[in-house]
Amino acid sequence: MCGRYSFAEVDELIEERFGVRVRTAIYKARYNCAPGQELPVISNEKREELVFFRWGLIPFWAKDPSIGNKLINARAETITAKPSFKNAFRSRRCLVPAGSFFEWAKDGEKTPFRILMKDEKPFAMAGIWDRWTSPDGEIVHTFSILTTSPNELMKQIHDRMPVIFERADEQRWLSPLPEPELLSLLKPYPEEKMKAYRISRLVNSPKNDTAEILNPLS
Predict the structure, then answer these.
(1) Which of 2, 50, 53, 176, CA to CA, is 20 to 30 A from 85?
(2) By C-alpha distance, which of 111, 114, 39 is closest to 72?
């Protein structure tokens, strides 16, 4: 599962790293991104711009939008079979940019960890999105983050991890490729390119959205 992450990069770095336009009036650094929030993604419909979708996918056919609370993640292994995800996988994919993500170890104490690249540069997680229309006509864009089996680093912390792309594969994910080729991208990221460290339980509450939660636990 991936239920929390950070994306607190400056506008210029985002534009340089992902090749997108950042609307500075909307974008702000988020140190503790949580489900239900409007967060930046790069969709296959607007590759040149950072857009803001709500985390927690509401399928276009849903009667009740609260289903999004349960659909923050989609398992890569079953994405083509699940009714909630299969249509979005085929035609509505996105990149979810991040600086790190957080996971809680299954160690009896649920110790929180911050996981990031060794070079501490931002990366892109695999996402799918959908467009839901409310009974009163409001259009709501939502997304879900894809997860896969853990690499050797993540196995020490949790039994799932988000799908993270090599840079060369990011634009492929947004392209209209055959299904087998898309599925081949959904694999664990190389552990030798990542690192992890314990952090404070401040991260447990989404209300704590400050750089302090990124600090290693002393």
Answers:
(1) 50
(2) 39
Tokens of residue 6, six digits: 């950070």
Choose the catalytic residue: 2, 9, 94, 170: 2
In this structure, how many other beta carbons lie within 10 angstroms of the beta carbon of residue 17?
15
Q: Around 110, how many Cα atoms within 13 Å sit in the side-chain half-sphere? A: 4
Is 166 considered catalytic here?
Answer: no
Here the tokens at position 49 are 């711009």
Query: Is 2 a known active-site residue?
Result: yes
CATH of 5-214, one of 3.90.1680.10, 3.90.226.10, 3.40.1190.20, 3.40.50.300: 3.90.1680.10
The reported pLDDT for the residue numbered 90 is 96
| Choice among 21-25, 91-95, 117-121 with the minimum mean pLDDT | 21-25
The one-letter amino acid code at 11 reads D
pTM over 0.70: yes
**Choosing from 9, 94, 103, 170, which is the catalytic residue?**
103
Domain boundaries, the chain: 5-214
Q: Which two tokens stand for residue 169?
A: 């594969």
Position 180 scores a pLDDT of 97
What pLDDT score does 103 carry? Answer: 97
